[in-house]
């Protein structure tokens, strides 16, 4: 008699996941300081408003002209090829930063992996000039504000609040 297969119990995503997923240059979609480059940065906060030191983020984006990159080799940074993808771990104070170009498509697609999550969370960071996007227009003002990056003297800033006051809007894909 054969056993009936059962689903494997769910596990949370961390804090153990850092080993084996880091790679050199994951935050550099383009070389820092190169023409047209921008720093995308912020802090990840938990529901109590405390920084999350053991999360990581991935971004996907179009190039500056709005084209979806088709280059291979996302894990190898050669300093010239733009793949439109990056991965970075948060620092001890919950901070993260990427060096990239502003996406011609108007937003960065973001995935967040962190302790206590059963799966990654998806969101977007919009350029301030693209706040007229139809998706954003469908949200109330408070929700919309959680997705629009702030232009600062040092780049584009967008914090992520996993829960609580100012909780970032997360997207569900079906």
Automatic annotation (TrEMBL):
Domain called Intradiol ring-cleavage dioxygenases: residue spans: 33-105
An MF annotation (GO) of this entry: protocatechuate 3,4-dioxygenase activity
Pfam family, one: Dioxygenase_C
EC number: 1.13.11.3
UniProt keyword annotations, A-Z: Dioxygenase, Oxidoreductase
PANTHER family for the chain: DIOXYGENASE, PUTATIVE (AFU_ORTHOLOGUE AFUA_2G02910)-RELATED, PROTOCATECHUATE 3,4-DIOXYGENASE ALPHA CHAIN
Family designation: Belongs to the intradiol ring-cleavage dioxygenase family.
UniProt name for this protein: Protocatechuate 3,4-dioxygenase alpha subunit
Lineage, highest ranks first: Bacteria, Bacillati, Actinomycetota, Actinomycetes, Micrococcales
């Amino acid at each position: 008699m054969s056993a009936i297969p059962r689903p494997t119990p769910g596990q949370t995503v961390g804090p153990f996941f850092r080993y084996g997923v880091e790679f050199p240059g994951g935050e550099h979609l383009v070389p820092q300081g190169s023409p047209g480059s921008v720093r995308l940065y912020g802090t990840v906060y938990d529901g109590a408003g405390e920084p999350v030191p053991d999360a990581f983020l991935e971004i996907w984006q179009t190039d500056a002209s709005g084209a979806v990159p088709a280059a291979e080799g996302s894990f190898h940074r050669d300093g010239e090829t733009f793949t439109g993808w990056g991965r970075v771990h948060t620092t001890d104070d919950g901070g993260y930063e990427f060096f990239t170009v502003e996406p011609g498509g108007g937003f960065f697609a973001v995935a967040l992996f962190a302790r206590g999550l059963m799966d990654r969370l998806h969101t977007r960071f919009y350029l301030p000039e693209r706040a007229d996007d139809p998706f954003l227009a469908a949200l109330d003002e408070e929700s919309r504000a959680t997705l629009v990056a702030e232009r600062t003297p040092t780049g584009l800033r967008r914090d992520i609040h996993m829960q609580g006051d100012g909780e970032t809007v997360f997207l569900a894909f079906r």
